[in-house]
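Exercise 7b. Backbone tokens:
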């Protein structure tokens, strides 16, 4: 079993979804490739990605759907 990506977007939204999933006892892996601190003159913000274990997808699906409907 592996990780599956469930979200890609702005950091504030990713953190909100991560917290909701963790309340449902689902472990979330967050990946951010934001290089803004390395090159401060470049103001591009890369998307933050959230991943969960495939086996948790059934349990996470209602939380994800409710989150998507709320944004």
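Sequence design result:
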């Amino acid at each position: 079993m592996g990780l599956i990506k469930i979200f890609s977007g702005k950091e504030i939204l990713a953190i909100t979804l991560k917290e909701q999933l963790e309340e449902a006892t689902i472990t979330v892996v967050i990946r951010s490739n934001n290089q803004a601190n390395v090159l401060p003159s470049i103001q591009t913000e890369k998307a933050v990605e959230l991943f969960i274990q495939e086996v948790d997808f059934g349990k996470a699906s209602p939380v994800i759907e409710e989150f998507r409907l709320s944004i």
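Instructor comment: The CA atoms of residues 5 and 51 lie 4 Å apart. DSSP finds two helices and three strands in the chain.
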